[in-house]
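Is this the right way to post C-alpha cells for a design question? Let me know if I should format differently. Anyway, here goes:
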C-alpha cells in the first residue's frame, strides 16, 4: 500500500473513504469497503481544535496503516492536520481536497462524519455535490451497541481486551520502547520487558493479560507473553503505572527496542499479595495460562 501526505498527492480517479478511523474497527471497515483510497488525519483533529478534549487513541499511525492495508486498500493519504487546515470551510474541503487534490469519483463516509471549519460539513453536503458519488455507511451495531472508538476505549479501560478485539476486527495492540525498570521480575525468576505507558494512547485497565509480543524495531519473532499492567502493589516502588511483559521462552536483551503487545485475554485483576512467595506462585499460574491461550 502506498502512503502519501496530502501535499504530495497526484490527482487520479479515486474511490475515497474519509474519516479519522482510530482503531479501524468494524464500523470503520464498513465505511472503507469498496474504496481504493483512505483519507485520514494526523494528528487526531480534536487534539488540534480542542486539545483538552482529545481522546486517548487506539492506534498510532503505523498500526492504522497496517490495518488499512490489510483491507486491500491501495493508498493511504494523510492530511497533516493543523489549525490552518482546520480553518478551511466544508466547501473548501470538498473543492480543494476531495475533487481538486484527489480526483474523487466516489466518497464514502460514516453517517455521523463531520468536516470543515466548526464541523459544519456533513454527509448531506457531500450528497448534494454532483461531481462524485456519495456513499453513506450507517452506524454499525453489535450486541445492541453502536461500534465506536469511544465504546472500545471504555472496554479496554475495563480490561475487556477480548471483546474489544472482536469489535476492532483484530487484536488490540500497543507498542512502546523497552525501558529499564527495577529488575524486580528478574529477581523473582520472571524477567520482564518494561514499557512506560504513553498518555496519548489507551492502556488496558490494571491486571494481568495473555498477549503475543514481538519487537518492531528491530523486527523479531512473536512470543507468547504474560503482561502485567499496574503499579505493583506488593512492592513499594515509588514508580507510576508500568506495563511489564514476560516473554515466554525468550532470553535476550531488547532494551531500547520497540515492543508490540497484541492482547488476547485478561487473566485476572491486579492484587496485593501477602508474601513474595505467594506472588511467585501466582506468576507461575499466569505464565501457564498465557502459554495455553497464546500458543
Amino acid at each position: 500500500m502506498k502512503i502519501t501526505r496530502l501535499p504530495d498527492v497526484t490527482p487520479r480517479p479515486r474511490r475515497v473513504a474519509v474519516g479519522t478511523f482510530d482503531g479501524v474497527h468494524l464500523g470503520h471497515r464498513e465505511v472503507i469497503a469498496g474504496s481504493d483510497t483512505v483519507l485520514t488525519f494526523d494528528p487526531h483533529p480534536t487534539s488540534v481544535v480542542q486539545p483538552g478534549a482529545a481522546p486517548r487513541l487506539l492506534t498510532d499511525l503505523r498500526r492504522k496503516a497496517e490495518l488499512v492495508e490489510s483491507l486491500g486498500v491501495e493508498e493511504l493519504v494523510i492530511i497533516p492536520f493543523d489549525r490552518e487546515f482546520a480553518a478551511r470551510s466544508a466547501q473548501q474541503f470538498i473543492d480543494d481536497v476531495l475533487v481538486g487534490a484527489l480526483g474523487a469519483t466516489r466518497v464514502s463516509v460514516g453517517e455521523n462524519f463531520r468536516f470543515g471549519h466548526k464541523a459544519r460539513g456533513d454527509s448531506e453536503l457531500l450528497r448534494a455535490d454532483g461531481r462524485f458519488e456519495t456513499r453513506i455507511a450507517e452506524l454499525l451495531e453489535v450486541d445492541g451497541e453502536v461500534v465506536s472508538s469511544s465504546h472500545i476505549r471504555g472496554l479496554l479501560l475495563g480490561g475487556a481486551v477480548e471483546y474489544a478485539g472482536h469489535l476492532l476486527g483484530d487484536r488490540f495492540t500497543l507498542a512502546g520502547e523497552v525501558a529499564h525498570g527495577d529488575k524486580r521480575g528478574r529477581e523473582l525468576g520472571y524477567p520482564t520487558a518494561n514499557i512506560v505507558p504513553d498518555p496519548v494512547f489507551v492502556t488496558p485497565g490494571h491486571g494481568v493479560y495473555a498477549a503475543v509480543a514481538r519487537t518492531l524495531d528491530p523486527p523479531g519473532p512473536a512470543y507468547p507473553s504474560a503482561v502485567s499492567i499496574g503499579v505493583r502493589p506488593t512492592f513499594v516502588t515509588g514508580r507510576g503505572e508500568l506495563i511489564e511483559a514476560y516473554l515466554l521462552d525468550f532470553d535476550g536483551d531488547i532494551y531500547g527496542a520497540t515492543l508490540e503487545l497484541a492482547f488476547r485475554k485478561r487473566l485476572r485483576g491486579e492484587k496485593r499479595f501477602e508474601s513474595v512467595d505467594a506472588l511467585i506462585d501466582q506468576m507461575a499460574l499466569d505464565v501457564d495460562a498465557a502459554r495455553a491461550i497464546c500458543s
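Format looks fine. Someone answered above. Worth noting: The domain at 172-294 is CATH 2.40.30.30 (Elongation Factor Tu (Ef-tu); domain 3). The first helix runs from residue 26 to 32.
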